[in-house]
Every structure is written in structure tokens, then in C-alpha cells.
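Dear V.,

Thank you for sending over the compound details. I've combined the ligand you provided, pyridoxal-5'-phosphate, with the protein sequence from our construct and run the structure prediction for the complex. I'm sharing the raw inputs here so there's no ambiguity about protonation or stereochemistry in the SMILES, which I know was a concern on your side last time.
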Amino acid sequence: MKTIIEPFRIKSVEPIKFTTREEREKTLIESGYNPFLIKAEDVIIDLLTDSGTSAMSAKQWAGIMNGDESYAGSRSFYRFESTVKNITGNKFIIPTHQGRAAEKILFAILGGEGKFIPNNTHFDTTRANIEFSGAEAVDLLVEVGKHPEIKADFKGNMDVDALDNFIKKTGAENIPVVMITITNNSGGGQPVSMENIRETRRVCDKYGIPLFIDACRFAENAYFIKHREKGYENKSVLEISQEIFSYADGATMSAKKDALVNIGGFLSLNDEELAMKCRNLLIVTEGFPTYGGLAGRDLEAVAQGLDEILDEDYLHYRIKSTEYLGNKMTDAGIPIIEPPGGHAIYLDAKGFLPNMPVSQFPGQAIVCELYIVGGVRVVEIGSVMFGKYDENGNHVAPAMELVRFAIPRRVYTQSHIDYVAEVVIEVFQNREKLKGLEFTYEAPMLRHFTAKFKPVDY
Ligand SMILES: *Cc1c(COP(=O)(O)O)cnc(C)c1O
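Below is the predicted structure of the protein with pyridoxal-5'-phosphate bound, written out as C-alpha cells.
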């Protein structure tokens, strides 16, 4: 097989500041061993998130200059609207400043006390917006999705039988909407099959409940369907995407993912009365319906990005290059969630450091060492992010201790990724030298963003 080459040339470059190991050791101490508190310019390769970190194309930048900044009826809005309509088939397209703003509007109207909203796995902002409305967010992921070591094609699927039972038990009148997240971000970026979306729709129809798609990574999901699901190998990614959305009544989207922009999002739907309510709320919280929370130029960039994301040479490179990093790690014996997801590799920190107690944050210890050894910034998704205390103040760990390597779109070349692999492998080879961590500061909520640590003394 030939080398996967980036399907683009570089026209504009942004320098990376190189630092020495000594400088990084100092930076890490100053930031309390928390990479969220490190200045971005002190990072060599930044894999903290794939959200809003994409490189825009020449045509997107041209669109920025070409944006129509009229308050009402901007040309850029109509281009954005027709692009989103063509993909989703939805009648009403409402621009928002990012994904969570679309969620906030939708759940402010559909949520509320006594309501339940099922999903394969809710993303944190989706869960937060549902719970903020007083409703309950329910995850109904298929069993295979809960086992990192099992290789399967569609580990992001909804457990359709569990959904049916849940609706029966809870009462359809208490479930205003069912969501399905593609790809399943909180479940390792694993895809959902077309069959599963169709079956989820069938259950929704049985009880008369609308289905909405959390569409942040719809194109990556469609690419997986094309290559893993029978009957789709000769369909275009656009056709597959259109079929996905045809089973839904609407969608929320963060354009910071598969629309290849740094800010933006939308809510799309078919129900006219609901659309009217959403637009009224939009005017209060985001802006007039033809710009939402965005400038005209942002709408141009989103529309152009949505055209580009459907380019199958791009998607091939995207999925293969994420897999490339995953394969380098597994070849070196490093445990990861299998198979690699679309936008990130998730390292299994418990397998990496089996002797470190989870109360000493093995994931965070790996994150810190990756920064010291190579200036690589990644994020812990484990006890630091989701750990709790029981009534005696003992640490209660989540099911998995993960370290996420999220790959920004079109930003890093293969040599950057080779470098990341070399850094991880070096850390793995010296893993018995890693020290656990303990808190020196811990906020009462969302503690991972601001926490400070020090190495545990032996
Ligand atoms: C990023 C994301 C969101 C929220 O979008 P923002 O633009 O960050 O507000 C919602 N759902 C999923 C699956 C996401 O990945």
C-alpha cells in the first residue's frame, strides 16, 4: 500500500514554537500539571480537541471576504441554507453560534421536568442542556460499544431493544424526542450504521416520537457506512448522508467539527410550529433568523466547508490518517480503544499503567509525560474528568481511564503524526518511571478544566 498523502497543498503556514524538555518541565509545574492551563504557544503538537481547530481552505477564506453582512436576508445566509437543506432535506434551517446553542434552544422548548431524552450516548453539552431544562438524559448504547478491546464495525449503535423497552416503561408522552449521535463522540468516535438509524426510526414511529440527529460528524459517519455496511459501497457520501437525515425529523450540528470552520452551528427541522418557537427563542438568545449567532462571513465559510467535507478523497485521508496513528500505537503494544474512531485515538490508561491506582490518575500522568517528552498536548478522559467521591470521601472511578488524541482537520501532516507516535512509544517504554498525581486544587464542578496537581510522594 502506498503512503497516505494529504489531499491538499499548503498555502499559508503558522510557525510552531519549539521548546526544550527543561522549558516544558518548568511550564508543566507552573500550570499545576494540567495541560488545560498551558498556553497554546508552549505546545508543539496540540491534540486537545478536533473542535473548532480545522484549517480552512483557500475557498473558505475567499468566502470570508465575500460574506454579506446585511442584518436581514443576507446572501450568505441563503447559500448556507440551501447547502444545509441539500444535505439534511430539512425544511427549516436555523443558524447558531455553535452546537450547544442549537441544543439549548431545542431543549428549552422540548425538555423540562418529568421528560426523558434517550440517545446512543449524550455528549456533555447535550446532557448539560437537557438537565438544565429539568429533563433527564438517558444513554442506551449497544453492549459491544462498552468494551474497548472488542473490534466491531458499528460500536456507536443505539440499543434499539433497550430503546423500545425504555419508551414502553416511561410512556411515550414523557419522551419529546429521541436523539442519535453520529459518530458517537463520547463513545470513542465510533460510527452508527444506517440499519441502526433506520431501526431507531422504526421504534420512534411505533410510538409517534420525533427523531433528531446530533450531526457533528455526519460525514465521517457516512464514510464508515460506505466502507463497512453492505449495499452502500457504490453510493456517494452525499447520498448516504441524505439517507441518514431522511430518517430524522431534525438535527443539531456543531459546524466546528464536520463543517471545517472555527465557529458555527445550526438547528434544522421539519415541524413548522416547532421551528417558529425555535426562531423566537433564537431572536432572544442568538440573533435574527438569517444570521443566528454568526457573521455573514461565517455562514459562507460553513457552506463552503460542508461542500468540502463530502469530498471522498478528503474523508479517505481523514479516516486513514486517524487509523494510521492508532496502528502505530497498537504495533508498539500500546492499548487503545479498538478499532480507531473517526476523529481521535483513545489510549487505555489502565492497560498502559496497570500498577498505578486509579486514584492517582494514570491518564493524567500519561498526559503530563507526553507533554514533557514531546510537547504533545492531549486530554485525560477518566478519573480527573468524571471521578466522584462516595459519602466517606473515597474516590469513585468511572468505568474507563482514557487519554484522547483528537486530530484537528487538515492541520497536521504525516510527519507530525509520526512524531506523536514516537513520543507516545518513548513514554510507553519508560512507563514504569511514571509517577501518580494528587490534587492541590479542585473546583466543585467540571474540575478537569481548572484543577491543579502535584506528583505523589512515595
Ligand atoms: C462538539 C459537540 C457538541 C457541541 O458543540 P459545540 O460547538 O462545542 O457547542 C455536541 N455534540 C457533539 C457530539 C459534539 O461533538
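A first observation: The pocket of pyridoxal-5'-phosphate is lined by residues 51, 98-100, 123, 125-126, 181, 185, 214, 216, 254, 256-257, 265 (CB under 6 Å).

Warm regards,
I. M.
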